[in-house]
Amino acid sequence: MENNLWKYALYLAILTILFNIAEGLVSIFFGLKDESLTLAGFGMDSFIETISAIGVAVMIIRIRRNPDEQKSRFEIAALKITGWCFYALAIILAIGAIVNLVRGIKPESTIPGVIISLISISLMLGLIYSKKLLGKKLNSPPLIADANCNLVCVYMSIVLLITSAVYHFLPFGLIDTLGTAGIIYFSVKEGMESFEKAKRLDICNCNNETEGEGEKMEAAKH
């Protein structure tokens, strides 16, 4: 029964990866085409979310093969890479926002942003519900944490939806800049959380290694 639940969790992770890749490609294409920095930034974030989802998929595969295996250095490194990617995205978007303000660049259309954000919100809410349910059944904090990561994606989608919808009726460039600022905020927040998760895993690994060495020393004495 538990193995079937982990298999279902793996399917959800793969679905998350495939959707994020598709969402990223489409968002960046229309973001660049229509000069919408908010939409392009949302697309770049989708690729960063893909890195996180791949880490979760690898974790699930390893757990299914060896349920007693401890957290690996790979997961810690993946979390740190994800964190730096979020920080890099925030810097790139901040520079882009400043350039757009100085040059007075305005989006040509934000209709794609409305459509993409609505699709993203609908699918992500379903993924969040399923992942949290599985996380509780399997007593797996990483799965629940992954669901919370998807929740941040929903917040970004809402920012994109509001920005795109408002710009459609009130077409002035500052709206796109404000939307970009929202994406930057969540990128920095998610980056900080990635490093915090890596730190907690590192501490957990150190404690486990220390306990293991202590048990070996006790066994050697006897």
Which ranges are low-confidence, i.e. pLDDT below 50, for 5 or more consecutive residues? Answer: none
Tell me the count of domains: 1
Which sheet architecture does the biggest sheet show? none
Number of strands: 0
| Percent of residues in β-strands | under 5%
Q: What structural category do the secondary elements indicate? A: mainly alpha
Task: Using the CA coordinates, give the radius of gyration.
Answer: 20 Å
If you average the pLDDT, what whole number results? Answer: 81
Strand/helix succession: HHHHHH
Instruction: Name the quaternary structure.
Output: single chain
Principal-axes geometry comes out as: elongated
Distance between the termini: 40 Å
Helix content: over 70%
- The tally of helices reads 6
